[in-house]
Amino acid sequence: MLASVVGLAGGLVGAGYLAMLHLLQHGLGPGRRAATTQLIVLVSVGLAVGLLTRLLGHPGDVELLVDNIHVLGGAEDARDLRALIPVSLLCIASGGAMGPEAPLVQTTGTLGSWLARRWRMSVDDTRVLTITGMAAGFTVLFAAPLGSAIFALEILHRRGLEYYEALLPAVTGSVLGYVVYVAMTSTGLQPVWRFPSVGRLHGADLAWAAACGAAGAVVAVAFTYLTRLLQWCVRRTPPFSRPVIGGLALGLLAIWSPYALTFGEAQVDPLLIRHGAEAVFAVALLAKLAGTTVTLSCGWRGGFIIPLFFMGIALGRLGHVAVPGTSEVVLMTALMAAINVGVTKTPLGTTLVVSEMAGLRVLPTVLIGSVVALFLTSSVGLIQSQRAREAVDA
């Protein structure tokens, strides 16, 4: 019953957060003005982010939430949301290259922690309800209830789901959050993106999926180390100036390519149907990689899962143009999963989310790409607070 309450509340919060985001995007988002004018908007937002952070405090992040889930069972303090919600809305709405998944999941997970403490739950039960809130937040974005629940469990660790007792509560919260979101928004049950027809699959597609796993691992490692390098450089600057530097860098990147801005959700469908040479898709991949790492490194709030999916789609289309005999959907979906798994270490959750988006026929090839990428990136991690359950119990 308590998991149901958290799931319903998470669906309501998710719908409200996305409604505010869409409203702000109409006024601040790119695409309605010249790139040079958008640069001024981005720098102004960076200044606003610095001021809000100084006035309201640090907004926290998913890495801190993951650490607190291991140690305390949930978020330590709900007051971080005072800064997180306005800062993340401004960053995402103005064109920052990270999406709403991290702020929304942090919000719904913190809500689960707050309710658990109000109900005087134990640390273990608080952990279960926090994960349930995270699952509800993920499913609002991905429209994939089962995959979102497992994703919320896996993202806490580097080698798979370990808090097994939270699985059914997380599924319950995820399903109810999805029902509430669909009922409030009338979005229907269609997937987030419209992939081409899969067509007939062959045994060779399994080998191509494994190759995509290796290629996705390379992109994931590049994303991880480029982010660390930029974070190291940015730490040499005053904290207040970092969001402004980020806004300036994003604006300059957008003059080169519009793919450097936004988290990519609205850019995916046009990219899926666009006809072009290899250079078109290569620029889309590199611009999103650059924009996302700059956004992540400079104190702008957002999540990198949907941008990583976008990179996989761009690289998949690039691969299909280079090797026309391949299955385009197999390449795109396997690369989406491989790149994301290489960064987040969520092989089962990512496989289910991508398969629910693109059609379950690609589940075997997506799973192969995920497992290969997990194996190849096992020693590389971006979310430093991910760890094994026994390390917590010890």
List the SSEs and their pairings.
Layout: H1 2-28, H2 35-56, H3 62-71, H4 81-93, H5 101-118, H6 123-142, H7 145-154, H8 167-185, H9 204-234, H10 242-256, H11 265-273, H12 278-297, H13 305-322, H14 328-344, H15 347-358, H16 363-376, H17 389-393
Helix pairs in contact: 1-4, 1-5, 1-6, 1-8, 2-4, 2-10, 4-5, 5-6, 6-7, 6-8, 7-8, 7-15, 9-12, 9-14, 9-16, 10-12, 11-13, 12-13, 13-14, 14-15, 14-16, 15-16
Mean pLDDT: 91
User: How many E-type strands?
Assistant: 0
What is the CATH first-level class name of the largest domain? Mainly Alpha
The proportion of residues in beta strands is under 5%
Q: Tell the overall outline.
A: globular
**In the CATH hierarchy, what is the superfamily of the largest domain?**
Clc chloride channel
Number of helices: 17
Between the first and last Cα atoms, what is the distance in angstroms? 31 Å
The assigned CATH architecture of the largest domain is Orthogonal Bundle
The total number of structural domains is: 2
Largest sheet: none
Give the H and E element order. HHHHHHHHHHHHHHHHH
What name does the CATH topology of the largest domain carry?
Clc chloride channel
Poorly predicted regions = none
Put the structure in a nutshell.
By secondary structure, the chain is mainly α. The protein has helices at residues 2-28, 35-56, 62-71, 81-93, 101-118, 123-142, 145-154, 167-185, 204-234, 242-256, 265-273, 278-297, 305-322, 328-344, 347-358, 363-376, 389-393.
